[in-house]
Amino acid sequence: MKKLLGIFFAAAVVLFFLLWKILGGITDHALHVYVLNIGQGDSILVRLDTGENILIDGGPDGTVLRELAKVLPLYERKIDVMILTHPHADHMNGLLEVFQHYQVSNVIITGVFYKSSAYEEFMDQIARKKISIFFAHSDTDYRLGTVALDMVYPLKLAQGDRYENLNNSSISFRLLSRDGTIYFSGDLEKEGEEELLRSGQNLHAGVLKAGHHGSRTSSSEALLEAIRPQIAVISCGINNTFKHPHPETLQHFAERGIEFFRTDMDGRVDITAEAGQFFIETENQKRPP
Questions:
Q1: Domain 29-282 in CATH 3.60.15.10
Q2: Which of 10, 25, 137, 228 has its CA at a distance of 20 to 30 angstroms from the CA of residue 239?
Q3: Which band of pLDDT confidence, cut at 50, 70 and 90, is reported for residue 16?
Q4: 112, 115, 114, 43: which is closest to 79 by C-alpha?
């Protein structure tokens, strides 16, 4: 009888660990970046090799919930750090839905002035849930698990500031890990990029999340020279009215040998950083970097 119970116990333990792995309970010790397919907007999930989650923007609507469910374990209901690069609707509105379905521990924002009911609701959610707020600027960096968030823009505290072009208030930062560096642009446009370049900061990264959905107003040649990425990812919607990405931006990538992926054609773009290399899989077609 004891032998039989031992066999059942061993089988139960094996089954438990198999299910746990299938559901995502065991990390593969790699850094994963998922550029989510949320239409015309931005939303990126970073899942650390130690299991923490960073959500950068939330897209224009609740599509982000469907996309998160595809890449997170079924039981996972925590976002360790939420970053709102700037409060335009195509980056912010989906985050309102995230607050309702996930436990958010920390929020990184600029705190710029922007009058909209959705932005007011966003700030109210943070206050009601007593979520810790950090105001991003280039003098303050952040650590989480095995990565550092090297904030490069805005150059100074922007809390309460008014911007004629809200895109140029965007948080831009480098995610630094032992396996590589990824640059996130937000919607920063050329005027902001020029100010950033004048600051003389190190911007080099292997992967670039292209600015402003591949618009000609971002990802200037000077910025590309400073970042020197091998790979770029563009988040944009199918047949969007802005005609993003613009041909000029794609030409700049091609001239520099930068392989680019775009969510309107490739669907979700999955980036895995491991052993100093980046591996790319796309929702619609698998292909190596």
A1: yes
A2: 228
A3: very low
A4: 43
